[in-house]
Amino acid sequence: MGKGEGSIPDEEWERFLREAEAGTAGAPEEPSARARMVAQRLREEGSPPEPWRSHRPARRRGGKGWYAIGLLVALALLVVALAPGRVAGWFGGGDDGGGNAPLAVESERPDQPPPTEAAARRPTLEQPFRGSPAAQWGDGTAGIGLPEARATGWMSKEQVAQALEKSRDFLAASSLDPGVLRGERPEKAIALLNPHQQDVQDYLAAAFRAPSRENDPLLLFSRFEKAKVRLVGDVVKTRGRITYREGKRGAVEVTTDVTYVYPVVRAAAGSEEVVRTIVRREVVMSWDDPAKVVIEPGTFSLVSYKVDTTNGGCGTFTGYLTPEFGAERTASPTGDGPEVDPYDRSTSMETRMREAGDAGCGTATRS
Questions:
Q1: What is the Cα–Cα distance from 271 to 258, expressed in whole angstroms?
Q2: What are the residues facing 307 on neighbouring strands?
Q3: Burial zone of 313 (CB within 10 Å; 0-12 exposed, 13-18 middle, 19+ buried)
Q4: 182 to each of 19, 174, 215, 263, 328, how far by Cα in Å?
Q5: pLDDT (tens digit per residue) in 10-57
Q6: Cα end-to-end distance, the chain, whole Å
Q7: In whole angstroms, how far apart are CA 279 and each of 35, 54, 266, 311, 341?
Q8: How far apart are CA 78 and CA 80, in angstroms?
Q9: Phi, psi of 43 (to 5 degrees)
Q10: What is d(CA 282, CA 295) in angstroms, rounded to the nearest whole number?
Q11: Burial (CB count <10 Å: 0-12, 13-18, 19+), residue 362
Q12: What does the pLDDT read at residue 357?
């Protein structure tokens, strides 16, 4: 071996051979050909060599350390199993419209409002329900629960089931239909209303001809003026329930109480500021016995309606929801009515309306 090829002098090499042959403990090992080349390049380049299939063994910990880590992992898995939504929220995925699993359909009135810890996160075009409890609500009619049907009043179990389905169809046609949301006349919803209920027919005629406080189409229908506002995406989040009981003259009286969340932007091209309009609407319908009430098959008589709206316009009766954006919202005076959490469904609509009274525009605590 020439002196220029390796780093071991001839004297050392001869000593290595003698000791290796004799089996001397601790005899030096001959560097591999690759190791020698790497060492030579290191001396020539003056920089660390690039590892070749390098692997740095992990530092071992004492038995107690590994036990502690195992315990923490077990606790973490338990937390994930018990509250996956909360864990997702820790990593920023809890309210983006898809990070959390949807809540179970509402079957009874909740006893408290939803939490507010994520409310400061602003909605975006990609995540229009970000920062809102509605991120975990159902899409469209999936967020509106139907109760189990049973024979009631003049209807059999099967007839009650059909009435409940049609009641939900009315909600879809009046508050979720894409055309209606763009300002079109809600023909499918109107077709479900008893045409012989004259006061309702008069209301409908006036509401779409000359909207006013008394004849406001928004009492029953959700509509935006498409020249000014457009929805973000094709999803409206909902949460609510449908209940029923026997009403007058053996009718099946159905009560619907649903909150709708509409994410919108200005209609102008390139608009990116997303705001939300929130509408909670209670509609009571009477599916009457044709033998006792003049009514067309497949229609219901309207008993009552109540509506509470956030960022949909206050004191303006144009027939359209009119959300405010940016500077408009800043410049608007604070409402003289009570503060209201639009996501709080623990209060009945009757109580909500009684508290509001004639105070005028209230103030929403979040949107």
A1: 29
A2: 281
A3: middle
A4: 93, 12, 20, 13, 22
A5: 555 556 555 545 454 444 333 333 333 333 443 444 443 333 332 233
A6: 82
A7: 74, 61, 19, 9, 12
A8: 5
A9: -65, -35
A10: 22
A11: buried
A12: 73
| DSSP state, residue 70 | H
CA-to-CA distance for 301 and 49, rounded, in angstroms? 85
List the chain domain ranges. Answer: 107-364
Q: Which residue has the tokens 């469904």?
A: 345
**Residues 168, 174, 179, 183, Cα dihedral to 10°:** -170
Q: What percentage of residues in the chain have a pLDDT greater than 70?
A: 68
For the whole model, what pTM was predicted? 0.73
Cross-strand pairs, 282 = 257, 306
Query: What is the rounded distance in angstroms from the CA atom of residue 290 to the CA atom of residue 217?
Result: 28
Reported as half-sphere exposure (CB side, CA atoms, 13 A), residue 215 has a value of 13
